[in-house]
Prior knowledge:
It contains eleven helices and 13 strands. By secondary structure, the chain is of the alpha/beta class.
Amino acid sequence: MGARIIGSGSFLPEKCVTNSDLEQIVNTSDEWIVRRTGIRTRHLLEDGQDPAVMGTAAAKQACEDARISAESIGLFIVATNFPDMICPGSSPFIASELGLDQTPFFDLKAGCSGFVYGMAVADGLIRAGLYQRILLVGSEALSRVTDWSDRKTCVLFGDGAGAVVLETGRTDEGVLGSAIFGDNDKALLLHMPAGGTRTPADDATLQQGGHFLKMEGAGVYRSAVPMMERATREALAAASLGLDDVDWLIPHQANIRIIDSLAVRLKVSKDKIITNLDRVANTSTASIPIAFDEARRDGRIKNGDVIVMTAFGAGVTYGAVVVRI
Ligand code: ACO
């Protein structure tokens, strides 16, 4: 028995920053950002706002949507790369806000593929019979690790959170197949050099901006499309389905050019692809659950639909899950 999705939720901070706003702080233009990325706006946390508010809001909405009480959750997982605190992470803070007094929790760090990895892990735990109900949140406060003087990265990211409640389902629903991969040769394509145990934060790392996310954009771009293509094909094979069976593809929302190239390689029509990066930009682990939740709520995704969620990210990690709603 695999894991089926019984509820979803999402949250975006109120503050909305346009490309024109960014023109005021770095040498960029709305035209460049839209043409190279497809992004027009992004939502950002206010200074001093706790990142955990995002995961908490998304999780509460998912539990309401599933019509369950949070206490009935057997396991709580937060996919995030930049938690509220490096130790103990984000999950204990969100668990506290949700009143999950007896529920085990952990953070899962797998780059922007964290939500897809989380789906695969949660499905495995449910299939093994270890848990009947798991709450999975993807939450990311990328604005807090963005160098706002670096035009190559600051235009790309946004903050947000998404959540799903997974429960033991029938064999013909929920997660039908998954495939996750890693390529450690590319570990430094996306990284934060300082602040970990290899290079603890000190005055020098602060001066050098070592606590900001560094990205080799072109390298990421080249890898992203073949990786998501492979993951999609292998997850579908694991589900014994073909691309013709897919109603919706929800790719990680990093760049519209990456998504368009993926569509061409998979020969999937653009009207089957769910995107929201024009409004929310790249929210890392939150990108797929936010897009999923929005499309469920506005009626595009219907019961019985087959969805492929696919992502790539720091590590590098990549993967896909096939889900029947
Ligand atoms: N505004 C104006 N000009 C810019 C900007 C900007 N915001 N950013 C870069 N440029 C300039 C560069 O300086 C360069 O100028 P130069 O030729 O004078 O040196 C020129 O534009 C071209 O730069 P490129 O980096 O070659 O631009 P490219 O077409 O590759 O687009 C981009 C850059 C958008 C980052 C692209 O490489 C990309 O999308 N990569 C993948 C990024 C990604 O997916 N990241 C997220 C994955 S992981 C995660 O989600 C956390």
